[in-house]
Amino acid sequence: MTPEETAIWFGILTLVVVEVGLITPPVGLNVFIINKMAGINLQRRLAASITKCGRRKIWIDPNEINEIALTDSRANVRKLLKEGCIIKKNPKNYSKNSIRQRKESDKKGRHGGIGKRKGTKNARSPSKKMWVTRQRVLRNYLKKSRSNLKIDNHLYRELYLKCKGNEFKNKRTLVEYIHKAKTENSRKSILYEKFEKKRKKKIFNKEKKIQSFNKKMIQICATI
């Protein structure tokens, strides 16, 4: 074996011995580095919490993986962020072209159809549910009007039964009916007052006539 070959084999043997020493305890430095390179979840998690984003948004420089693997504190991670070894990825930008096209078509009056319908008419909007909702609205309005002294108990009872009999289609028709009923009641009260005045006047005139007739009869009887 020539001296050159001997030097080459000596170098190979030296490298193998050094590598075995680095792999096996108590040194084991290569094992520690390989372990850190395989799992850098801690550094990724710290960087994500510092930059306030998700772990997928964190980019780690593969050339500086050894230095990054040795960091285990927030201060060191902040330092790496400033140096650019760890970077927060930019958010994805979505195109608004489809939204603009949709708005333009909406301005032209498109996309105004009924679309898909599943189920019968009564299944999509039950008539019983509509009835209950309408009755609640009407009855609540009647209670409120009675508490505010807009209607009396007699009118309240009358309108309650009319609501139950499905006479009012919505709240607007009920309000219109209340206004008409109030004007009609006021008109009736005015007419009743006029009628009472006339009746009292007639009674007074009748009594007056009877008194005058009685006086005349007394005078006639006295002359006889």
Core attributes:
single chain; 224 residues; mainly alpha; 50s Ribosomal Protein L19e, Chain O, domain 1; Non-ribosomal Peptide Synthetase Peptidyl Carrier Protein, Chain A; 2 domains; two-stranded antiparallel sheet; 2 strands; 3% strand
3D structure, described in words:
The protein is mostly helical and 224 residues long. It has 2 domains: 3-88, Orthogonal Bundle (50s Ribosomal Protein L19e, Chain O, domain 1); 126-223, Non-ribosomal Peptide Synthetase Peptidyl Carrier Protein, Chain A (Orthogonal Bundle), CATH 1.10.1200.240. The protein is built from 10 helices and 2 strands. The chain has a two-stranded antiparallel ribbon with strand order 1-2. The termini are far apart.
Topology:
Layout: H1 3-23, H2 29-38, H3 41-51, E1 58-60, H4 65-69, H5 74-83, E2 86-88, H6 97-107, H7 121-124, H8 127-147, H9 153-164, H10 171-223
Antiparallel strand pairs: 1-2
